[in-house]
Design brief:
Two copies of one chain form a homodimer. By secondary structure, chain A is mostly helical. Chain A folds into two domains: 1-87, no CATH class; 102-490, Neurolysin, domain 3, CATH 1.10.1370. The first copy, chain A, has 21 helices and three strands. In chain A, strands 1-3-2 form a three-stranded mixed beta sheet. In chain A, strand 2 (226-230) and strand 3 (233-238) form a beta hairpin. In chain A, helix 1 packs antiparallel against helix 2 and helix 8 packs parallel to helix 21. The longest helix of chain A has 26 residues, at 2-27. The termini of chain A are far apart. Chain A binds chain B through residues 9-10, 13-14, 16-18, 20-21, 24, 28-33, 35-37, 39-40, 43-44, 47, 212-217, 219, 229-233, 235, 270-271, and chain B through 9-10, 13-14, 16-18, 20-21, 24, 28-33, 35-37, 39-40, 43-44, 47, 212-217, 219, 229-233, 235, 270-271.
């Protein structure tokens, strides 16, 4: 067991080092460093892969005698990792890396010139390779299952479709109604917010909710993200817009939510592959909980609004808490996912999920994608993209080969409410705590039920154990109705 | 050859990744990340070592057929690296790492409490392990040769002693004379220098002399350093003192000098162990050339002083170029190496070199070190440390196990003048170029004669080819006399 742990630590250290190099690439690296850096990361990832699937690792796994519960979990997860990693031929991985390298450039050009045809042949190649990838990984029901499983272990296309169908049937009319009544004016959010003050206010609140800066830090990057180099070094990035409150503030809460998850993993898992979030959906449930369920709630702003007024006097002097609360919760259907409000966001995801599935199943051709996209957008959200750049070309994911990734965003939203409801049931005074800026009880509940486990439990196991049910549509829809009805009757 | 290159690239990438992780540790890492980070770096360095000394690398080296001149250099240097790396048992490396880990903490405590006895047993252990290390590495004449060779390949104790003796016999009286006449008042350097302006002015001049910011960047760290992640990503750090011009400005020129060397290596060497400075002495010759021979010269300030006055109006208004030039060249013997002026610096090094040698040769006991240190300091520099914290405990090097490292600082100073004289002979208008802020001819000369070679040529080969002689004392002493005589007669 000791030799196995040493070997797994080496694999973990290689992957953690790769994460440091990728973080530096997005935050600090001079432009000239890009090519050598990509090669360095590729070497680290390859060595980690080779060590994982090597005969010696398998021998050590088989030789491990009677072990603790934790070690048993470790052996089980590593076996599964090896099994999956061994199924995919390295030629296919190399082909995907090469195709993605080209597709990313083509996508950038296609988006900036609004010519889908520039990207189409690359996407066709990506789809083809994803189908091969799915065949190599194997599946029970349909190829898309295998792709989904990479990001959300154990989730199936059928299960996710059913949940999404239920959401969509209620959400489309709800979003239309909300969008029509126009809950509030976003005006106060588009004023002068000095960058220094945004930085300080965002970090202050991130620390307040539980982001440990002794084991974290924040940098600037074009696309915000969170990354973990160990349980005791988990970083976030943000971006600042001078005249818009939302990106930095809600982005910081969101990334801090991811980071708080990683910081909360049981330290006994350090140096093993268990020291990671258990799925992308569960990860997103944590970022969304702090961003939306806490960060866009009235109790939170009863606590935070006076401090926000102090931090941004020019923007928020004379603005009432009520107006501010309505502004940050305004519903306004638009064509762009990353700008979507809490209500309409999931519709953007469901559109992508449906199209991904149908591409992989051979039911939608890449050439038909723009029309299929725009038709659904109009039917579900009531808006039609003016061009492909703000339609089918808006996201980078497909150009990276990441098909099966999008649904985890919506699954995370659904899980966040299921978990929050369970925390609420266990902590009846939660609103009061939040109203007084005390987030420790919620954090402890999350540590206990979600964070500490790392990959020892799957998302489904965590949800079932802590909420009594697997991922489902009802709680999220009920939460939205409660929230917006209360807002309307204020 | 192709397989060999691929394998060497992997080794290089692992070492480059370790450098990124170490850089981050000094510049950005949150305090909590230290323990996991040390383990990550250790894993990367161990894997690089294992790949280097593995049978497969040797097989590939032996199988390489007729090759280009560059590949022949590559094979020769890698063979030498492997041979050296194979001589030292890993148990000794581990013992040194452990001893150094403890010694560093003990040194910090000893220095802060001024109790040499706290550090002494750790230093005894370090000296003992260094002797074992020297025996493992092997040597012709004396054990210290083997230690010196780690940092300055091919240099011998005898050769360095002879050169240093010659310097010292002339330098001790010269420094006393200079220190007595008191060349200038340092007053103008200890005024209000706003940190932002220091940062901008230092970087502007670093870029001006040739530091390519498209392949570089600067961060803040407690102890300034330069580090290379590839030929196209070479970074520096600096530290800022609000009321002292020197640390940031001359530190930035110094580190930029190191970085310019690394940036100037032939791109064909990228991804091989040849893409590195050839020795610490040669590296220091480059940092010192830009810091002192250019950066403390009159022609440089004829160009830069008006800009400095613009950047620091509060400090430099009403100060004449002449006063400023005298201030940055003031000679003032002191007990602290890192604060030493251009004249007395080498005496600090020679003191350490002599004591290191005698410790390794068993001629000076660790317990006698403070007295031996203070006596030499008084005899050579005319000052006696008030306590061990500002005496024998001032430097970190020994606690890290780096015995044999110090002499490279003085060798670098000597080499810098030899190279500068040769450049001067080849570029008779050099003073005029510098006076007009044009450093391109000097840079080209250094690229051609020093930088491009990486580790293809040793320091001695580079010096001999470009200056006609190996490292020697005469040019440096002659330079000092010229400079200070000219200053006295102004």
């Amino acid at each position: 067991m000791e030799s196995l742990r040493t070997r797994l630590a080496r694999i973990t250290h290689l992957n953690q080092a790769a994460a440091v190099l990728e973080w530096d690439m997005e935050t600090h690296m001079p432009a000239g460093g890009a090519e050598a850096r990509s090669q360095q990361v590729a070497t680290l990832r390859s060595l980690a892969h080779e060590l994982l699937v090597s005969d010696k690792t398998t021998t050590l796994l088989e030789a491990a005698g009677p072990v603790s519960e934790l070690d048993a979990d470790l052996i089980r997860v590593v076996r599964r990792d090896i099994e999956k990693a061994s199924r995919v031929p390295s030629s296919l991985i190399a082909a995907m890396a090469e195709a993605a390298g080209r597709a990313k450039g083509a996508w950038q050009e296609a988006r900036s010139t609004d010519t889908f045809s520039t990207f189409a042949p690359h996407l066709e190649r990506i789809v083809d390779l994803c189908i091969q990838h799915a065949e190599a990984l194997g599946y029970e029901d349909q190829p898309y299952d295998a792709l989904l499983d990479q990001y959300e272990e154990g989730a199936t296309t059928r299960q996710v479709s059913e949940v999404f169908e239920e959401v969509r049937s209620q959400l489309v009319p709800f979003a239309k109604e909300m969008g029509k009544t126009g809950v509030a004016c976003e005006g106060p959010l588009h004023r002068e917010y000095p960058e220094d003050a945004q930085w300080a206010f965002g970090l202050k609140m991130a620390e307040r909710i539980g982001y440990d800066m002794n084991r974290g830090r924040q940098d600037v990057s074009a696309h915000p993200f969170s990354t973990s180099f160990s349980i005791s070094d988990v970083r976030i990035t943000t971006r600042l817009e001078k005249r818009f409150f939302n990106p930095a503030f809600f982005g910081t809460l969101h990334e801090a939510g991811h980071a708080i998850y990683e910081q909360g993993i049981d330290p006994a898992l350090e140096g093993t592959p268990l020291a990671d979030g258990t799925s992308l959906g569960m990860h997103e449930s944590q970022s969304r909980m702090w961003e939306n369920l806490v960060g866009r709630s009235l109790p939170f702003w009863e606590y935070a609004f006076p401090q926000a007024q102090e931090a941004f006097p020019a923007a928020l002097q004379g603005v009432s808490l009520d107006d501010f609360y309505r502004a940050i919760n305004a519903v306004s259907p638009s064509t762009i996912r990353v700008e979507a409000d809490e209500v309409t966001y999931n519709l953007h995801i469901m559109l992508r999920f449906e199209l991904e599935q149908q591409m992989i199943a051979g039911k939608v051709a890449v050439s038909d994608l723009p029309r299929e996209w725009n038709d659904r957008m109009e039917a579900w959200l009531g808006v039609r993209p003016l061009n492909d750049a703000e339609g089918v070309l808006q996201d980078i994911h497909w150009s990276l080969g990441a098909i099966g990734y999008f649904p985890t965003y919506a699954l995370g939203n659904l899980m966040s409410v299921q978990l929050f409801d369970a925390a609420y049931a266990a902590l009846p005074d939660l609103d009061d705590h939040i109203r007084h800026g005390d987030f420790s009880a919620l954090l402890s509940w999350l540590r206990e039920n979600v964070h500490q486990w790392g990959r020892r439990r799957t998302a489904s196991q965590i949800l079932t154990a802590s909420t009594g049910a697997d991922v489902s549509a009802g709680p999220w829809m009920a939460y939205l109705r409660r929230k917006y009805e209360a807002m309307a009757s204020r």
